[in-house]
Fold Glucosamine-6-phosphate deaminase.
Amino acid sequence: MELYVFDNYDEISRYAAKMVSDFINENSNCVLGLATGSTPLGMYKKLIEYNRDRIVNFSEVKTFNLDEYRGLSGEHPQSYRYFMNKNFFDHVNIDKNNTFIPNGTCEDVAKECRDYEEKINELGGIDLQILGVGSNGHIGFNEPSSELYAYTHLADLTEDTIKANSRFFKNIEEVPSKAITMGVGQIMKSKRIILLASGVNKAKVIGRIFNGKISTENPSSILQLHPSVAVIADKKAASLI
Ligand code: GLP
């Protein structure tokens, strides 16, 4: 695994945005896997600037997001569709028809998951996947467990995750307890992965990605088996490597 450590959040955001825009400049019609959460926000901001300054062009890019809360429509301010539109898609020259996020309010979840997988495969799989990581080691919403799913599925969120994500909601009762998420198999099939981490509360999990054993109880540890992962972290997140 490649490791890039920087002094602060701003520097990791800039470096990640540069990596992504270089990648797009070499593969103008690539398929990106995208993440939500607070960690990639700075990277999205920089990519918006690069797009405005014509350093990168999203007109042929396709994107698949990792996950969406079950029960939230795209208009809900805490849905990941809303997050992506507001923080990224609305500000760059991407065709929204080429941006895919599971539909949290679909009637038939199993079908939604199957269709999502098929669409990813139809477009040739994910070329570059952006990941954040939960402080409990989750990637997407693949939570620590005795078993993991390879493919897109409906996941139960753990208490830890519900608590961590309640900061975005009015109160903890409003946080959905389930989400549709890409599975670890689809994530691991990405040709290249960039994992972003910032802050001391990610230090333990980042340390374990580099030094720990591979375990389904720490889904991010599976990234050790991937041939092309770049971890971009600030000093605090990298402090236990
Ligand atoms: C969320 C998302 C993950 C994200 C993680 C970390 O629950 N489903 O994709 O990586 O939490 O979030 P943050 O970047 O805010 O720490």
Notes: Residues 35-39, 66-67, 132-134, 140-141, 161, 165 surround GLP (CB under 6 Å). The CA atoms of residues 29 and 110 lie 29 Å apart. Residues 2-204 form a domain with the Rossmann fold fold (CATH 3.40.50.1360). Strands lie at 2-6, 31-34, 62-65, 67-69, 99-100, 128-131, 153-156, 178-181, 192-197, 229-234.
